[in-house]
Design goal:
The protein is an all-alpha fold. It is built from seven helices and no strands. The protein has helices spanning 3-15, 19-25, 32-35, 43-53, 57-62, 81-91, 95-116.
């Protein structure tokens, strides 16, 4: 049995509900969920099941570990300590100050790019 179907079955047992009742309540055909052992479900059907069982899509598709809002280590961007500190300071600014800072950063970045590129028709030194 697929992990997805196992998680659904676990939640059904906790609530003393049958696959048939779940499928009926969600407007799914008889045996639809068991077919998810070999076929990928459509997203709209998976959403209906998650809502009925009152669980997240993350839980249904990935399990308990993904049910938290924490980003897995392998998905986190690698930032230097200085970059991380700068991002923390930026996030601590009020929205209007963030906009000003971002505009300043865009200007600095454009100047850097312009200075790094040789002028048209010229040669690099």
């Amino acid at each position: 049995m697929s992990e997805l179907v196992e998680r659904i079955e676990r939640k059904l047992k906790e609530r003393n509900i049958t696959f048939g009742r779940l499928e009926h309540e969600c407007g799914l055909g008889n045996g639809t969920i068991k077919r998810w052992n070999t076929q990928s479900p459509r997203l709209n059907r998976l959403v209906r099941v998650a809502e009925y069982l009152q669980v997240s899509l993350d839980y249904l598709t990935f399990g308990e570990k993904a049910a938290s809002s924490e980003v897995p280590e392998w998905m986190r961007p690698v930032l230097t300590e200085r970059e991380s500190e700068g991002l923390s300071m930026f996030r601590g600014l009020p929205p209007e100050e963030q906009e000003d800072f971002y505009a300043f950063l865009q200007i600095k970045h454009k100047r850097y790019q312009d200075a790094a590129q040789p002028p048209e028709g010229g040669t690099e030194k």
